[in-house]
Amino acid sequence: MSEQHKTKISVEIYGQTYTMVGPETSGHMRLVASMVDDKMREIHSHNRQLDTSKLSVLTAVNAVHDYLKVKERLEQLEKELKTLKD
Q1: Where are the domains of the chain?
Q2: For residues 12 and 18, what is the distance between their CA atoms, to the nearest angstrom?
Q3: Which SUPFAM superfamilies match (predicted)?
Q4: Which of 6, 33, 44, 77 could be joined to 11 by an S-S link, Cβ 3.0–4.6 Å?
Q5: Cα torsion angle, 17, 37, 44, 65, sign
Q6: pTM for the whole thing?
C-alpha cells in the first residue's frame, strides 16, 4: 500500500496558529484557512460579545449550512440534467 503525499503547513486563523496536514495543495489549504478566518471575523463583527468557542461553533454551523445549500443545488441540477438527457 503506497502512502499518499501529505502537505503540512502552518496557518493563522483568528489570531491562532494551526498546523494543517492533508493531501491538498498548500494553496488550497491556505484558502480554506483564509475563508474560515474571514467568516469568524464577519460573525464577530455582528456579535462582539461572543467568546472564541461560541464564535468557532457558529462559524462551523455557517459552513455546514452553506455546504448543504450547495449540495441541494447540485442535486437539483443533476436531476434537471438527467431530465434533459431522457
Answers
A1: 7-85
A2: 6
A3: Cell division protein ZapA-like
A4: 33
A5: negative
A6: 0.85
- Taking every pair of Cα atoms in the chain, the longest distance, rounded to a whole number of angstroms, is 54
Residue 2: the pLDDT is: 47
Give me the DSSP letters along 2-52. PPPP-EEEEEEETTEEEEEEESS-HHHHHHHHHHHHHHHHHHHHH-TT--H
* pLDDT classification of 86: cutoffs 50, 70, 90: confident
d(CA 81, CA 15): 44
Q: How many CB atoms lie within 10 A of CB 54?
A: 12
Look at the block and give the residue holding cell 462551523: 60
3-class DSSP state of 86: coil
